[in-house]
Design a protein that fits this description.
Length: about 775
């Protein structure tokens, strides 16, 4: 998932995220100015010691880490708590964490796997300041010099006398002290928690079924609601007969919800809500509704859902790539926009004219569902001049702003609680389900929990953007890459949700960024974007367009290596050349690739996978990598002898800087691999006549446990600041698998999901031929 783009006030994406992590007083309540005037502020009788907005020490010694980030299974709650606890010298067994409510003054959003990267230093600073204050308060309590004391396990200890005082007893005294503006950090060799494989904070509650997800929240007098929606995208309600629904036992009310016409934002579609005393009764009532819908509202594909189909989208992609569209095309094909030219038009033409060999390739990535395990839900309690919300969201600031826009309430009258989430993958960045719950609660003056069933979300939700890519590559006589021309067509998340972020020339920077991040040596490179519109809602999916471009770039490199008769690893290392650091501009923010670190993870993954060792006929290895500040390389081993891909093993080498918790990193890699293999082998949302063809896991299947390969994780030791791992290991898997299939069979698969023997690409016999190159991939 990619974070949303430019925000209000001119702050760019990462700057805003850094502000959210705690760059100054607005976020932390922790100034670096006049230390004498800045105290913890609790004073006599303090119930807790809270020197900043990051942490609180209770009188019983418990430490609560206060997060602006959301736990949705990625382990960030545990990782950030470990950073605070280690720098604070807290007793880990007495440390907890919770996500705070948004207050309208600080930006709260979790996405892009940036949480650890942007919070690492502010968290340490906040904890180090608290530790220094507790140390001083403890020394005074013990009647000794500060230099004679140390902190450990939630205590201030005086070694000479053997005396100690718990942090809880120091709450009041520490609260009177000034907050040090420049506290001293612990050195890495003093870390007691960071680097240890600790279990997740919430694991015991999850295992014992005690964890409270959004769907588990219950209020006295609460009602349950589901919404009947148009079967065709963007359909409008014509009429409804609700008599049979109201007769269902438990049904309390039926309400018509009027939405807007997509792509207006926020997108709230027409629907009929059935409200009952239980979810089951609401679902039964919904089935009894008799609703009629209007479908053909216009002849514009951007708003008329009846015109949306997978076939039409493919045709539009192809027409857009053909370059015949203009910016004013009535059927919503936008003219191509050049996003990058490395070299010159003349140089590109000359490179292709003088090439020893050229490749002309096409790749396809389909629409994908987010399909989180916990169905989307929200609970709203309207109380006249105040609304309280419980919603699994990781964009609390958007919830707050959208609810304010909907209701007119000031920020202090909108209370947003963030319970544990059962996955998101980008879906819960959108807030449509929250607004619907608020609407119903306001109309009924009762607490209402709204549920989107899995069928609702798969058929009426948001999808990872599809794309089609046309790539041309020119190779020299020595096989080196001389020129690369990459044109792609796609649907734009930003055009649908943040149209003000589209440049005047029509470029959406979010669609092209990961196509531009190409650290391999090529003198001539041209990337061109073509946007297409249909009434299909697309949204960030495991960092937006990163999966699409990683699949294309990493398959392309393998094809170039094969054409050059070179080993895929050796070919990549040669193109990377001498170690260097490349900064790519991401709308004013730098995303850095260190080619030395990239080469290291490529080599480490191959070494651990036994790259170059012999494999049975019909078995192959494939290599792919990605960099989003975190450097990741994967080797996939696939068996083709059953006539379909059977993934035997995945080796993933990760350089995410200093590893805060290796156990959680490994867990994230394993989960990412499972998610990515589902998308690579099975996942695709298709439409016909404006209707989504999939509805649940029977026709949008997930990877099953007997299909899950062994996953070996190689963690690269590093003293660099930590970076993210929530999404990165999901990005190279599809390309590595496609490359492995070629190594096993000689067949190139260029469309996801990977289907051997697809039309136009006859599949070799099982156990197929040994590819004429890529010796390292087969042994």
């Amino acid at each position: 998932m990619s974070a949303p783009g430019a925000a209000a006030g001119g702050l760019q994406r990462r700057a805003l995220l850094q502000a959210a992590a705690g760059g100054g007083a607005l976020v932390l309540g922790f100034r670096v100015g006049d230390a004498a005037a800045q105290t913890a502020g609790a004073g006599a009788g303090a119930a807790a010691f809270q020197p900043n907005r990051w942490l609180r020490v209770e009188r019983d010694g418990r430490v609560v880490v206060l997060l602006t980030k959301t736990e949705m299974g990625q382990g960030i709650e545990t990782g950030l708590a470990m950073v605070v606890a280690d720098e604070l010298d807290a007793d880990w067994s007495r440390v907890g964490a919770r996500t705070v409510a948004p207050d309208g003054r600080r930006f709260m959003m979790t996405g892009g796997s940036y949480s650890m990267a942007v919070a690492w230093e502010p968290l340490r600073k906040a904890a180090a300041a608290a530790r220094q204050m507790l140390l001083e308060a403890g020394a005074r309590e013990l009647g000794v010099a500060v230099g004679e004391c140390r902190t450990a396990q939630g205590q201030v200890r005086h070694a000479a006398s053997g005396r100690a005082v718990d942090y809880g007893r120091l709450v009041e005294a520490a609260s009177r002290l000034p907050v040090p503006p420049s506290p001293t950090f612990k050195s890495p060799r003093e870390f007691a928690l960071i680097g240890r494989p600790l279990g997740a904070i919430n694991a015991p509650a999850i295992v014992r079924a005690q964890a409270v997800y959004g769907i588990d929240v219950h209020l006295s007098g609460m009602l349950y609601a589901v919404i009947e929606r148009a079967p065709v995208l963007n359909g409008r309600l014509a009429r409804v007969d609700d008599r049979a629904a109201r007769a269902v036992p438990g049904v309390v009310d039926v309400r018509v919800l009027r939405g807007n016409v997509f792509p207006q934002s926020p997108c709230l579609r027409d629907g009929v809500a059935v409200i009952a005393t239980s979810t089951w009764a609401a679902l039964k009532g919904r089935r009894a509704l008799q609703a009629a819908w209007q479908f053909a509202a216009s002849d514009n594909k951007a708003s008329n859902g009846a015109l949306a189909s997978s076939a039409a989208l493919a045709r539009d992609f192809e027409r857009a790539l053909a370059g015949t569209a203009t910016r004013t095309d009535p059927d919503t094909l936008h003219a191509g926009v050049s996003a990058l030219r490395r070299g010159s038009a003349e140089g590109l033409q000359a490179a292709f004219a003088g090439a020893a060999r050229t490749l002309d390739l096409r790749y396809d990535v389909p629409l994908q569902a987010h399909a989180p395990m916990e169905p989307v839900n929200a609970l709203a309690h309207w109380q006249g001049d105040r609304v309280e919300i419980w919603a699994g969201t990781h964009f609390q600031s958007r919830v707050l702003q959208r609810v304010r826009d909907l209701t007119g309430l000031p920020a202090e009258r909108v209370v947003v609680h963030t319970p544990l989430m059962g996955g998101s993958f980008g879906r819960r960045l959108e807030v449509d389900f929250v607004l619907e719950a608020v609407q119903l609660s306001r109309e009924l003056a009762r607490p209402v929990q709204l549920l989107w069933t899995r069928e609702d979300d798969l058929q009426h939700g948001l999808f990872g953007p599809a794309s089609r890519h046309h790539v041309r590559a020119a190779l020299g006589a020595d096989g080196r890459l001389l020129a690369l021309e990459h044109a792609f067509a796609t649907l734009s998340v930003r055009r649908q949700n943040e149209p003000e972020g589209i440049r005047a020339d029509g470029l959406d920077p979010t669609t092209v960024f990961d196509a531009l991040k190409f650290p391999y040596a090529v003198a001539q490179m041209h990337v061109r974007q073509h946007l297409v519109e249909q009434a299909i809602r697309v949204f960030w999916w495991r960092r937006g367009y990163t999966p699409n471009h990683t699949f294309v770039n990493e398959c392309l490199l393998d094809e170039c290596a094969h054409a050059a008769g070179a080993d895929p690893l050796a070919y990549r290392l040669a193109l990377l050349g001498a170690p260097r650091v490349i900064d790519y501009d991401n709308e004013g923010d730098a995303e850095r690739i260190d080619t030395g670190r990239l080469a290291r993870v490529l080599s480490a993954a191959c070494e651990a996978a036994g790259w170059g060792r012999a494999l049975p006929a019909g078995v192959g290895r494939g290599l792919a990598s990605t960099v989003t500040d975190t450097h990741v390389a994967q080797v996939v081993e696939v068996d083709s002898r059953a006539g379909r891909p059977q993934v035997r093993r995945v080796v993933c080498a990760v350089d995410c800087g200093r590893v805060v918790n290796p156990q959680l990193v490994r867990a994230q890699v394993e989960g990412s691999v499972a998610f990515a293999l589902t998308a690579a082998l099975k996942g695709a949302i298709t439409l016909e006549g404006g209707r989504v063809q999939q509805s649940n896991f029977h026709d949008y299947p997930l990877l099953r446990i007997d299909e899950m390969p062994a996953v070996d994780v190689v963690l690269i030791d590093s003293d660099a600041a930590p970076t993210g791992i929530g999404e990165q290991a999901s990005h190279p898997t599809a390309a590595a698998l496609a490359n492995a299939w070629f190594a096993a069979t000689g067949e190139r698969l260029r469309a996801l999901p990977l289907k051997p023997g697809a039309p136009g690409e006859p599949r070799p016999p099982a156990g197929g031929p040994t590819p004429p190159s890529a010796p390292g991939s087969r042994g």
